[in-house]
Each structure stands twice: as C-alpha cells, then as structure tokens.
Design goal:
Blueprint (H helix, E strand, L loop, with lengths): L1 H10 L10 H8 L1 E7 L3 E2 L3 E9 L7 E6 L10 E2 L2 E7 L5 E10 L7 E12 L12 H10 L3 E9 L7 E5 L11 E8 L9
Parallel strand pairs: 2-8, 9-11
Antiparallel strand pairs: 1-3, 3-6, 4-5, 4-7, 7-8, 10-11
C-alpha cells in the first residue's frame, strides 16, 4: 500500500515551470553586478560601466539588457556574462544603469531586473552669462570658468554698444572645460540710421 501511495505521489508531483525551458531556468536563477567608475562620474569625461551576470544553464536564448546613458535596451542585447563600455558623460544630475536578464525563447519572454548602480555627476560647469560685458570682461569671465573665447562677431544692438549682445552656447549651458564660447559685440547701425 505504501509503495502505491509513493508511486502516485511521484506521478502527480509538480514539475517546476522551467524544467523543460533552459532559457527560463537561467532567467530565474541569474544574479548580476553592475558598477561605474569613477563614481561620481566626471562631466565631460568618459565613465566605465562594467557588468557581470551568471545563472544556471544560461545559453544563447538568454540575454542581458542594459539601460542607462550610453545603452539602448530597445536595440542592444548582450550575452549573459561580463562586459564593459565607456560612456561619455555629457549630462548633468545623476544617472542610473540597470541590468535585466531576458529569456528570448518564444514560449516565455520572461525578464527580471538583476542589478543597478546610480552615480552623480561632478565637476559640472556651465557657461556664464556674458550679456552686457565688455570684450575684456567676457574674456576674463570665460577664463575664470575654464573656457576660452571663440569667435567675436558684431551685430547692431543699440542697447549693448561695445558690449556682449549675444553668446553661443547660451548662458547656463553645461559645457566641457576648455571649450570655446563665441560672442557678438553690439555696435551702432551704419549711417544714416541711428540709435534712438
């Protein structure tokens, strides 16, 4: 009698959902790490994003999606394992990179978030407001912020004669130190026109 009960119990045992799906097996068991260096990342420089993932029976039907600056999870997938990528830090604030494992097999399409890392951006400098400055003042203001004076043009501007009328990039724009900022100096109109 005990033998019959044992055989019946074995016959009706619940089989794990992923027992016949190695892709799902990997997705369910995978673990990962992701890091970025340096941290905080430095504005205007490259940061290195590194990841590593592993799971039980991971094959080609399993992949990693990485989201965050420098990655497009809609078009890029990576094999389960490790890798790295240099990412240019041309953004401000903070950035987060996420690693998700995906079962690419047609019967499940299962995905699971594995790891993430967040880093703040340091050494962000922004273009100063040069409007109304003389040429010498504008040059000094740019030097103080780590920028160089680019091209100097002129434009009719009766409000800012011999002073900065406009600039490019505009004030407040995050910009890599060492970059140039161009300006236009105001001038009076050619006769017979006059400033009122």
């Amino acid at each position: 009698m005990l033998v019959v009960v044992a055989l019946l119990a074995g016959a009706f045992a619940v089989t794990p959902a992923y027992a016949d799906d190695p892709g799902l097996n990997c997705a369910l068991t995978a673990t990962a790490t992701v890091s970025v260096s340096p941290s905080p990342v430095v504005f205007g420089q490259n940061a290195q994003v590194q990841w590593s993932a592993d799971g039980v029976n991971c094959f080609s039907e399993d992949a990693l999606q990485i989201s965050g600056p420098g990655f497009d999870p809609a078009t890029e997938i990576f094999p389960v394992g490790g890798g790295s990528r240099a990412v240019f830090v041309g953004f401000t604030g903070t950035a987060t990179w996420d690693v998700t494992v995906v079962d690419l097999s047609s019967d499940t399409g299962f995905s699971r978030h594995l790891a993430s890392v967040t880093a703040s951006v340091s050494q962000v400098t922004t273009v100063p407001d040069l409007t109304g400055d003389t040429l010498a003042q504008a040059r000094q203001a740019l030097t103080n912020e780590g920028y160089v004076l680019g091209s100097v043009g002129s434009v009719v501007d009766c409000e800012n004669v011999q002073r900065v009328s406009s600039q490019s990039p505009s004030a407040g724009t995050p910009l890599v130190r060492g970059s140039s900022v161009s300006i236009d100096i105001g001038r009076r109109p050619a006769p017979p026109r006059q400033c009122n």
